[in-house]
Amino acid sequence: MDLLFFVLLSSVIHGTYGRATGAGSGSCESLIPKHSDIESQPADTSPWTVTPSATSYTPGQTIDVTIQASGGQQYIGILLQARPAGSNVPVGTWVTNVADTKLKECTNADDSVTHSSDSLKPVTTTFTWIPPSSNAGSIAFHATFVADYATFWADVTSVYISYSTSKTLYLILYMATSKNNNHKNNSNCVVVFLKTDTPLPVVYYLIGDST
To answer: How many domains does the chain have?
Structure first.
């Protein structure tokens, strides 16, 4: 009888207090841990900030997302996603090299990051986000941090980053020393290639001697 009671009690404790191996699927949309009726701390009081390494994203170019504690506090649990404005569906995929964390599928494979144990995570952790292959609009990074069973901050959000396509701007400068309009054999012709990440059309500038 005592053994049966111990087994049942252990099951209750694990089911109520334990998500030591990662956030459950029930938290994918709400970002709220299933900790009975305990409410989240206000997101704007979170000891951790979520900061992307860029202000825009381009398909094929990864972005680092850094979790930084304002003090020395360490979290034990995390759920991290990239979401378009007005949506609760994560986009893109992740790479993690942070100890005791792993990738999770909420809607698509590897679209979320969560913890794999309840160990204390470093004060600063960085995860790598791979953008989707097409324009998903403005994106913010949403995270939930668990300090202990009774204390967590849900849906702590980064600034928004915008979609950008990488264009190459060709600036062609013809620097003529001769008044002859035929510059084919002009040794002073200079071609300069400038790279910009702003979504601008390709523009050609021709500067030369018009006489």
So the answer is: 2
